[in-house]
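Hi L., both proteins are below.
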Amino acid sequence: MTGSYSVSQTFTLTHAKHLASKVVSDLYQCRNFYGEPSEAQIARYQEELIVMLAGGYVKEYEFGFKKRDQRIVSWQYRVNASGDLVGGADDRSGGIYARADISGATHFNFMSYSQAWFDLSSDETDTVKSKHPVDRNTGDLPSDGNGYWHTDRTYSSAGVAIERKTFRPL
């Protein structure tokens, strides 16, 4: 005898808070090792991430340090909402690379948006933006400096997974 079943989960604000808390823990660990971002910035980024993840508006999120528009060390989070990771890995946050020489470097924080964001009307994007305190400008990510990418964590909740990659110096 064989049987089958399917699992259907709805991604809620609670799930968005869970995923955002993983990234925010990484931000705090970055602050502990490198002195930035500030606690006030982290609180604002957390509010923004919760709103944007709950709406399905985040494609990628990255923070780190750059010098002369090249990454020194950074952490990139790629959102996968395909649902294929229901019940999949949900790693602990942390494990931030702590030995980069960031002297003379500046901190950056970048969010790229999913198609769902671009499908919103101007009024709808204004409404979403009014729900969090971060005001982002358009820009480009720094290019890779003297280092390499390493995929090291996956955070997941209700079929939405965030894969973390770290750019580490050689």
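That was the first. Here is the second:
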Amino acid sequence: MRQIVLDTETTGLNPATGDRIVELACIELVDRKKTENLFHHYINPERGCDLGALKVHGLSPQFLDDKPKFAEVVDSFLEFVRGAELVIHNAPFDMGFLNSELKRLGMPPLNSICSGVCDTLPLARQKHPGKKNSLDALCVRYKVNNAHRDLHGALLDADLLTEVFLRMTTESTVS
């Protein structure tokens, strides 16, 4: 079974108001084992970042200015995820942004290309009701070292989520 652990960073919180993706990262799992295959790009959003988003990821407009636009990486991204199940923490957020970018390019939604989506947030809420289930909280709960995470980053967060997901979905883990 092929799964892709995916995360994005964005210019803000709402693609419906014009917010865009600034970083996209995917890590491949085959039969629950991390492979060496990954997809990672910083993306020029063709607009500025909200101050709140900038404080979360630290990706300045100057840094992003010479990066490829989403349209320039979309084909390689879709080829990378084609047929795989996506693993995403708070999937509606990332899927909303990705589908907005695809729609902007006249392309079909992501779920028509992938075999499905596993959202780890409701999974965590089901396994740990009444507890915090942010990625940071899950790292603590599943003993995944995130001490090096000062700012959010799509590749860093996808890597952390990969470890959390594998531990959270193993029968022998303790809650």
